[in-house]
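Hi Y.,

Following your request, here is the sequence exactly as I used it, all 204 residues.
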Amino acid sequence: MNDTVCPTHVKREQIFQAAVAEFHENGFSAASMDRISARAGASKRTVYKHFESKEKLFQELIRRHWAKFTETLDVRYEKGRDIRDQLTALGEAEGHLMTSPEIMATTRLVMSEVLRSPELVEENQEKTDYKASFEAMLREAAADGQLCIDDPREAAEEFISLLKGKAFWPVVFGAPVVSVKEMAQIVSSSVEMMMRRYGQQDRR
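Below is the corresponding structure, written out as tokens. Let me know if you'd prefer a different format.
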């Protein structure tokens, strides 16, 4: 197969996108480097030049996928702004991802394959701390006197669990992706539960 002449970074991206399509269609185990090569319009030699194995391609998919969550959840605490509004904005940021059929389809793919083959996650790969934005906001809100929280990390885990309990894990295991309206209700009820437990007005 003759490779189409194009910049190296463009060819690498073409190969990656071809691999994504192959993984979605056939799963990791049944995915074929031959088909990835054909989809990308690249020789197998070129494919292996950019990605030394099918595992490396899937690890790149995992890295990019979770990076979307990290980037979207980069929400900072705003001193003086009502914490209920800020928690709602943070919940909506994650909710935006969980209402995306494309993102949740990739999430389902990644979770199912990693559960079957934990070795797909490199041992030395730095794990993204998805709780960091939640924890930071809750800690700063407590320091600012808007919330009464002894353990911001635990409170962050509770908030995340409220959001994911109905909109993430059910979808991973085959349920339909929640609608934007359903997600808004989930965010609203989750924020309300957090305020009832940690809001200053309920601690008086």
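The longest helix spans residues 8-30.

Thanks again,
Q.
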